[in-house]
Amino acid sequence: MPPSSTVENYLKEVYLGVGRLPAGATLLPMGQLASALGVAPGTATTMVKALAESGLVDYEPYNGVRLTAAGTRLAATVLRRHRLVELFLVQVMGMRWDEVHDDAEHLEHVVSDRLIDRIDEMLGHPETDPHGDPIPGKEGTIRERHFETLLTCPVGTRVVVARVSDQDPVFLRFVERHGLKPGQVVSVEARDEVADAVQLRGADDATFTLGARAASKLLVDVTPEAAAAATPSSARDAAPRR
Amino acid sequence: MPPSSTVENYLKEVYLGVGRLPAGATLLPMGQLASALGVAPGTATTMVKALAESGLVDYEPYNGVRLTAAGTRLAATVLRRHRLVELFLVQVMGMRWDEVHDDAEHLEHVVSDRLIDRIDEMLGHPETDPHGDPIPGKEGTIRERHFETLLTCPVGTRVVVARVSDQDPVFLRFVERHGLKPGQVVSVEARDEVADAVQLRGADDATFTLGARAASKLLVDVTPEAAAAATPSSARDAAPRR
DNA sequence: ACAGTGATTTTGACTACTCAAAAATACAAG
DNA sequence: CTTGTATTTTTGAGTAGTCAAAATCACTGT
Ligand SMILES: [Mn+2]
Ligand SMILES: [Mn+2]
Ligand SMILES: [Mn+2]
Ligand SMILES: [Mn+2]
Fold this sequence. Notes:
The structure is a homodimer.
Chain A: H1 5-19, H2 30-37, H3 41-53, E1 57-60, E2 64-67, H4 69-91, H5 100-107, H6 113-122, E3 148-149, E4 158-164, H7 169-177, E5 185-192, E6 197-202, E7 207-211, H8 212-215, E8 218-221, H9 224-229
Antiparallel strand pairs in A: 1-2, 3-8, 4-5, 4-8, 5-6, 6-7
Helix pairs in contact in A: 1-2, 1-4, 2-3, 4-5
The complex binds manganese (II) ion (4 copies).
The structure holds a DNA duplex.
């Protein structure tokens, strides 16, 4: 009767996958879903047909899949559990932000409402997880803010890292080493289209270079208020979100 | 490759079931295993044969099942996770001792070694869980102490509750209300074989009666050292184990 | 219009776990 | 012995999820 872990994973991945779609598109191709879940394409097709039967997704053969309202609500609660757990592991258990994703991936399916509420309360009803991802509300409401990336933001202005859209531990440690955790300040010195690279100046005034691929994974807040509110200069560790 | 939750549950239940066997017996009847797991008898038989195939249990048809050394080791790590999680939920998350069992029942299958070590460390390598159940060591070592019960312990001496062998929330709350949590002191005033009841005097000097069935679920430490070390008189809440 | 290519769906099969009901077994009493 | 009862095992079947490989479809370029 409660949705299985498998169903929860499919719905979550549909939600995340649709979010990564090029502007305009709303249907996630089965191939992308399958590879995100690490299953064979045929498996995803079969499963999605069952989910459509249950009214959790809309499925258009050969076009792709999208969440229904019910599916979105469920995906949001899974995401809420995942992200609250991640933040809990970092904030309370003292784990590193690059090692919490795998644990959360399993815990998200078993933490009870009682426990997740307790965690939420203990953390003071946080709005984002350690990677800057928004934490859906208790009733399945998700407010996704729109951000620029280090590839698209204005050059020469101080911007604040808001979100890192890659869970790979190696990448996360790299990000941390360069002072690019959510809450930290950085500015784009220059962009070189040909070299496919971005010149950055961190809070410690050191400059370094990022490839375009990596730069596009760093979402930044370009509003002046954000830069003003951010930890002025002694930002060695990331400032906690709020 | 890692054991499934199902396998972990079977092994854990075999361990606990064998422990509850009448003195002398070492083989857990299939019927008991099946009902402990809430599964049909035939299901248990099939599963146990598979576990025997994997070398985790010894199975004697029509006689019952018992853990091998490998099976014991695995059961111990599951029990370790279960009990550390329970204590964590009480001590760190502030949950009540009567509501943690269900959460632990699910979490025991998904907490990583990293996380469980962290919990263990955070709790100061505790030896018992909130119900007085011993927490197996990291390497699968279990030291089960032998205890008397309120049905068998000497009359008139102060004894210390060591362990409560029933997870039912209603019973646990009853136990708490009467000051019988692990660590608390009590003494048997009298036993009435005919009435099937035990007269008790709690730390607050109030007396009350327990049926034999309930009394036998309260394991007590009868050594004088235990009574001396226990919270002398102002024992309103249970003293933390160590 | 049409062949080629890549994505998607279908098919057939397999694993893990489960149940209900029938068959077999153990054991205690007569 | 022999029968009755309770327990256990066997049988047949079903669900959830998965894969490999064959079949189908959509689309691109000619
Ligand atoms: Mn994550
Ligand atoms: Mn995250
Ligand atoms: Mn428990
Ligand atoms: Mn316990």
